[in-house]
Every structure is written in structure tokens, then in C-alpha cells.
Design goal:
Layout lengths: L2 H6 L10 H13 L1 H13 L9 H11 L1 H5 L8 H18 L3 H20 L1 H6 L1 H5 L9 H25 L5 E3 L2 E3 L4 E3 L7 H17 L4 H33 L7 H29 L9
Antiparallel strand pairs: 1-2, 2-3
Helix pairs in contact: 2-7, 6-7, 10-12, 11-12, 12-13
């Protein structure tokens, strides 16, 4: 039996089994220092991914809630985990050489999964599957995918906002993603496409669906429903901007009011998330209680 296996099979109360995980995590921190630095920098500088700071905290919270489950899981180290770790390092090197940030960052998740498998086996990996998998939401989308999503969302939000303004009798003409009002022209830029709220809402829906004891189909339905919720709430913000601009001039929709409206619309989106959960609860008959507590 290897030294690692003997250490991991030591009595849990002695905490000797923590030595190797701590050593490997320390080595991982050194190896991924440049990747983590660029990731945190993007969270700080890119508002679309500011929620990245919260994602690891949610994963840690889930780990704490499930501590009895994973601490009492059977420990059977698997050598296949080493191959997974090796593949993750290959992805890291390839992503670094090709200047592909997404590949380098995703390789960290594969490395963590490989470490769990190598040190503790499949049972432990299944126990930690959600907190590890949830970390994918802290990684920004590749630019090629982001650009494919952003522009259609801009156009869709513009269409919905135009229809809303027509309903409340505010004259507006849409030219692509530009809303032309009698006294001003509003451009629906990338920041107003809804990607920011969409990614955050999907992450929240996934975490909420997991923490609340729902049937599996409800856990899948909630993130899917966040797509129209994000589109509607963002269109509502554009409509509000249009109303303020029409009645009080463009300055009324800038500065503090523009930022404040963003927060208010996000609160509306959260309420819609809870409303979707309530409606789905009516379908399956039991909203459930907080799980893993």
C-alpha cells in the first residue's frame, strides 16, 4: 500500500488524512497562481462577472452543509485520478501557450476533480460533485461564445422594450438596438444586453434549486426559466430608462438613477425567481424544505 493510501485510510479523527490534500492544494495554488490572478482581475474589472467572488463562497457553504456526508464517505483512492490530473495539466499548458484563458481556467476544475478521485475515490467525488461543478459559474465564458450571445440578447431586449413603450403610449422607433425617442436616442449597448443578470440568475437558480429539496426536474427547470426572466427584467430596465428620458430628458436616466435602476431590476428578477419556484411548487405539490441543513 502506498504512503498516500495509508495516510488517507488513517482514522478520520486523527486528521492525518488531511496532510496530502493540503500539500496538493498548496502545489496547485503555486501552479495556477497566474491563472487565478487573471481570473480575480477579471472579476474585479468586468461587471459581467463580478459574481465570481461569490461562487467559491457558495461552494464552501455547500461543503459545510454536507460535511457529515463527505467526511463519512468511503475512502478508496483511484489511480485513474492521476490521469485526470495529468490531463488537466496538459489543458493548462495548452491553454497558456494558445492564450486561451477559458481552457486554462477550466483545467483547474478538472485538476480538483482528479485530486479528489486520486486521493479518495469515486464515492467522495460524487459527494463533492455539486460544490466542484458549481465553480464553473466563476469562469467567464469564452469570447467567441460571449459575442454570439450578447448581440442577439441586445436585439431581443430592444424589441421587448419597444413593445412595452408602445403599450404605454410613448412614441418610439427601433433601429436595430437603438431606440429613437422624440427627444433622445437610446442605444442598448453590451452592458444592457442582459448577459450580466442572466449569468448571475442562472447561478442563483442552480444553487437555490440544489439547496431546496425539490424534484430533479424542478432543479433543471429553474435555470431554464431564468433566461426569459433575465430578458424580461432587462427589457423592463430599458423601458424605465425610456420613460425617464421621454418625460424628464436624458440626464434623468443617467448617473445614479441608471445604476439604481439596475439594482432594482435585479431585485425584480430575484422576486421572479421565487415566483417561478412557487409556480413550479404548485405543479409538484410540495415546495420542500432546506436540504442538507
Amino acid at each position: 500500500m502506498s504512503t498516500i493510501a495509508r495516510a488517507l485510510e488513517a482514522p478520520r479523527k486523527s486528521y492525518d488524512w488531511l496532510v496530502w490534500p493540503v500539500v496538493l492544494l498548496a502545489l496547485t495554488s503555486v501552479l495556477y497562481a497566474p491563472v487565478l490572478k487573471s481570473l480575480v482581475s477579471q472579476w474585479w474589472n468586468d461587471p459581467d462577472y463580478a459574481q465570481g467572488f461569490l461562487i467559491p463562497l457558495v461552494s464552501v457553504y455547500v461543503l459545510w452543509l454536507q460535511r457529515d456526508r463527505w467526511m463519512n464517505s468511503e475512502m478508496r483512492p483511484r489511480n485513474f485520478g492521476f490521469l485526470v490530473m495529468l490531463g488537466a495539466v496538459v489543458l493548462l499548458v495548452g491553454g497558456s501557450l494558445g492564450a486561451e484563458l477559458f481552457t486554462s481556467r477550466v483545467s483547474l476544475l478538472f485538476l480538483l476533480a482528479g485530486m479528489v478521485l486520486f486521493l479518495a475515490g469515486w464515492t467522495m467525488l460524487r459527494a463533492l460533485a455539486f460544490p466542484l461543478g458549481f465553480l464553473i459559474f466563476m469562469i467567464p465564458l469564452p469570447a467567441v461564445i460571449y459575442n454570439q450571445i450578447t448581440f442577439p440578447l441586445q436585439l431581443l431586449a430592444s424589441r421587448v422594450a419597444t413593445s412595452g413603450l408602445d403599450l404605454i403610449r410613448i412614441p418610439v422607433l427601433r433601429d436595430g438596438n437603438i431606440l429613437i425617442l422624440p427627444n433622445y436616442s437610446l442605444e442598448v449597448v453590451e452592458a444592457c444586453s442582459g448577459v450580466r443578470s442572466l449569468m448571475t440568475l442562472i447561478a442563483l437558480a442552480v444553487a437555490y434549486g440544489y439547496l431546496v429539496d425539490h424534484p430533479r426536474w424542478v432543479r433543471y427547470a429553474l435555470p431554464i426559466l431564468m433566461v426569459p426572466v433575465a430578458i424580461f427584467s432587462n427589457a423592463l430596465r430599458i423601458m424605465g430608462t425610456g420613460v425617464l428620458t421621454y418625460h424628464f430628458g436624458p440626464k434623468a436616466a443617467e448617473g445614479f438613477l441608471h445604476v439604481f435602476s439596475g439594482w432594482m431590476v435585479f431585485v425584480v428578477a430575484l422576486l421572479l425567481l421565487l415566483a417561478c419556484d412557487w409556480l413550479l411548487g404548485k405543479i409538484y405539490g410540495d415546495r420542500g424544505q432546506i436540504a442538507h441543513a
